[in-house]
Amino acid sequence: MYASGADDPYRAPCVRVLRLVERSRSEFITNAEVLQEIIHRYLAIRRWPDGRGLFNRFASLMAGRIESIHAVDLFRAAELADHYAGLSARDCLHAAVIQRLGLKHIASTDKRFDRVDGIERLDPMLVDEWAHLVTEAR
What we know:
The protein has 138 residues and is mainly alpha-helical. It has six helices and four strands; from the N terminus they run αβααβααββα. It has one domain: 5'-nuclease (Rossmann fold), CATH 3.40.50.1010. The strands form two sheets. It has a two-stranded parallel ribbon. A two-stranded parallel sheet has the order 3-4. The chain is globular and about 35 Å long. The mean pLDDT is 91.
């Protein structure tokens, strides 16, 4: 959303991340909750026509790499909520999916992920410093 939103310091770095996603398609996944967040945000600000375009572009970019949310993820998210005060329900759910899949990284502007054991946040502001993790994995 930063990549397509209002002027923000994260806008250009997030665009660079999306370009990396496009070039390194197999190295990135998302989950259904991210797409739900797009719907939620743009309905909340009464700009759904713009949000629909963003939703379609992101869904197309991530086609075949959108992980479902499972009941086990919800139970794990509740456990994470017990241990990490201040994480939102969505943050807990994202972390639960990452853990279920055995992944170690999340590309996010959200610094709250820095506190979650076993998950390393890849800050879009530092994409030039971590992009090699993706290109070396290929």
